[in-house]
Amino acid sequence: MAKPAGAACNLGCDYCFYLEKAQLYPQRKQKRMDDATLACFIEQHIKAQETEEVIFAWQGGEPTLAGIDFYQRAVALQEKHAQGKRVINTFQTNGMLINDEWCRFFKKHQFLIGISVDGDAELHDGWRKTRSGKPTHDRVVNAIHLLAKQEIEFNTLTVVNNINVRHPLRVYDYLKSLGSRDMQFIPLLERYYPAGAGEGLVPPGYQGEAVIAPWSVPGEEFGVFLKTIFYSWIRKDIGDISIQLFDQAFAAWCGLPAQICVFAEHCGSALALEMNGDVYQCDHYVWPQYRLGNIHTTSIARMRDGAANQAFARAKSLNLCSDCKHCPFHFACFGGCPKHRILPSACGEQNKNYFCAGYKAFFHYVTPYMLMLKSLWEHGRSPAELKLLIT
User: Fold this and answer.
1) Per DSSP, what are the bridge partners of residue 247?
2) Regions in the chain scoring below 50 on pLDDT
3) What is the pLDDT of residue 197?
């Protein structure tokens, strides 16, 4: 996950966990990744992949701040180092700078665009604002219309927070009205040090006193949010609309690899690259203690396969909550993201997932549907046929 503009962003979303990462590099003067680092990254990332398909994930901050010229150089370098491999570019944006020029570039090079939208104007603008506190919804919708006009493939990423979590069908129907056929719903949880105990967000693994940010979504409410949308989706939209978390559940029931790192058995495969070439073990673990090295001195492949990253990968299962070990849905969840393991378990360990109750309720609810979908799949029939059987 490459961050060519680092933590820089043209928005000031109240709930953003990455804006404060600029404090890691207080002396930084550059505004984007330099050409030497870009060239090093492109070559190393392609070499590090053992498959015939290589995915570049451009994120931020806000990746459009690096400018179109930057990505034109990136594409040229990809072509130079591809060695016959298929290169795919994904690009997660807030949409504020998307215009016809960006769309022409995305179309020409077949970028897959992820655009952040949390619902209609009232729901979206609750937390997603400019640095001066102005609403952003209308400009995001304009960006989506431009993408659709150019027939550029896009998906939507919705941060489920304490506001929109109470309106699941309103969010879902609105995303459909925008033309989204591929949706991601990301539950929000952030913690802060209590007053006087420190500054900023609490790093993952912190066991001391902390305050849950007001925009975080309660675990149980996230479960209701998912179940409500699933009820509508399975009857109307399966086969036409892809929802990442539902696809993940289906994969789990079929014994297939995890679709989302959150639900993988191990971590360690979702490295994050800062603009200066520093590599961290995860996008949510960009803290000094999780820095693996720098691509100018150590290759991506070596950092990925090194002892520090392997230990990080194993820690997810080694530090599994005792409750999870006996949970019937362990195979679908594997304890969730380690960042979210902040609640006490039955044994008093401080490693139970904050969203456990919501995930468990959702997995329990979808079990009969997943068994039917699995049966259709095993018999060579489309899982989408299920909507014909239950409506």
Assistant:
1) none
2) none
3) 67
In the DSSP assignment, the letter for residue 383 is G
Q: How far apart are CA 356 and CA 274, in angstroms?
A: 31
Q: Please give the full DSSP string across 111-178, using - where no structure is assigned.
A: PEEEEE--SSHHHHTTT-BBTTS-B-HHHHHHHHHHHHHTT--EEEEEEE-TTGGG-HHHHHHHHHHT
Nearest residue to 125 via CA among 163, 78, 96: 163
Which of these is catalytic: 118, 283, 305, 323?
283
Q: How many residues does the chain have?
A: 391
Rounded CA-CA distance 302/180 in Å is 38
Q: 104, 72 in Cβ contact below 8 A?
A: no
3-state secondary structure of 58: strand
In the numeric block, the tokens 């949409």 are attached to 95
Does the reported pTM lie above 0.70?
yes
Q: What is the DSSP track for 313-330?
A: HHHHHHT--HHHHT-TTH
What letter represents residue 83's amino acid?
Q
For β-strands 291-294 and 211-212, DSSP reports them as unpaired
User: In whole angstroms, what is the distance from residue 206 CA to residue 218 CA?
Assistant: 20
Distance CA 142, CA 136 (A): 10
Q: Give catalytic status of residue 283 as yes or no.
A: yes
Give the pLDDT confidence score for residue 382 in this predicted structure. Answer: 94
Whether the CB-CB separation of 5 and 275 falls below 8 Å is answered with yes
Q: What is the pLDDT of residue 217?
A: 97
